[in-house]
Amino acid sequence: PKFAVFASGSGSNFQAIHDAVKAGKLSGQAVLVVTDKPGAFVEERARIAGVETFAISPSTFSSKELYEKEILQKLVELEVEWIVLAGYMRLIGNVLLEAYPSRIINIHPSLLPSFPGKDAIGKAMVHGVKVTGVTVHYVDAGMDTGPILAQQVVEVVAGDREQTEERIHAVEHELYTKTLQQLWSR
Ligand code: GRF
């Protein structure tokens, strides 16, 4: 299917997904990268990958509804069928939820429902859990609350955030691709 990736930052998950498509491991077509942070590194990745980007700053709209309507117009224009969130640091509102029912997927760097929201890895380290992980889930109106599609455990490297983070990101890149492939080959 045709999909759009929404990202606010570095875009390493976008990169992994795009690489998987190129390698024939994921049957889909990334037709658009949407970012709410103009200038984010994901734009550069998309440019190199040859994927159109749509950078749109929410602060220039008077409501989330108008902001999302602007995005929706672009998605419809490009016949986007699925929305893949990859480090998109914003809740999805009604406009997109209603236009894409059960067609929006997110990845989160913890074993949900533990540590939802921002800095899940930091929160897990502070809590002192021995294992954390990665969750891929359907998106609903809540913060990291939708039905779970896949999870994978990652062992925490005690006292070493950097190494723990590296492990988590490596698992994210594999698990996201694998889960999307399962979802789209049903
Ligand atoms: C990932 O850890 C993702 O799970 C979280 O934000 C991070 C995005 O990283 N929601 P990247 O932009 O894909 O490199």
UniProtKB/TrEMBL annotation:
Assigned GO CC terms: cytosol
EC number: 2.1.2.2
Keyword annotations of the record: Purine biosynthesis, Transferase
Annotated binding of N(1)-(5-phospho-beta-D-ribosyl)glycinamide, by residue: G11, S12, N13
Site (Raises pKa of active site His): D144
The UniProt record lists the keyword RNA-binding: no
Pathway(s) per entry: Purine metabolism; IMP biosynthesis via de novo pathway; N(2)-formyl-N(1)-(5-phospho-D-ribosyl)glycinamide from N(1)-(5-phospho-D-ribosyl)glycinamide (10-formyl THF route): step 1/1
Function text: Catalyzes the transfer of a formyl group from 10-formyltetrahydrofolate to 5-phospho-ribosyl-glycinamide (GAR), producing 5-phospho-ribosyl-N-formylglycinamide (FGAR) and tetrahydrofolate.
Gene Ontology terms for molecular function: phosphoribosylglycinamide formyltransferase activity
Protein's name in the database: Phosphoribosylglycinamide formyltransferase
Alphabetized Pfam families for the sequence: Formyl_trans_N (PF00551)
Coiled coil: none
One GO term of the biological process aspect: 'de novo' IMP biosynthetic process
Domain Formyl transferase N-terminal: from-to ranges: 2-179
UniProt source species: Psychrobacillus glaciei
Reactions this protein catalyses: N(1)-(5-phospho-beta-D-ribosyl)glycinamide + (6R)-10-formyltetrahydrofolate = N(2)-formyl-N(1)-(5-phospho-beta-D-ribosyl)glycinamide + (6S)-5,6,7,8-tetrahydrofolate + H(+)
Zinc as UniProt keyword: no
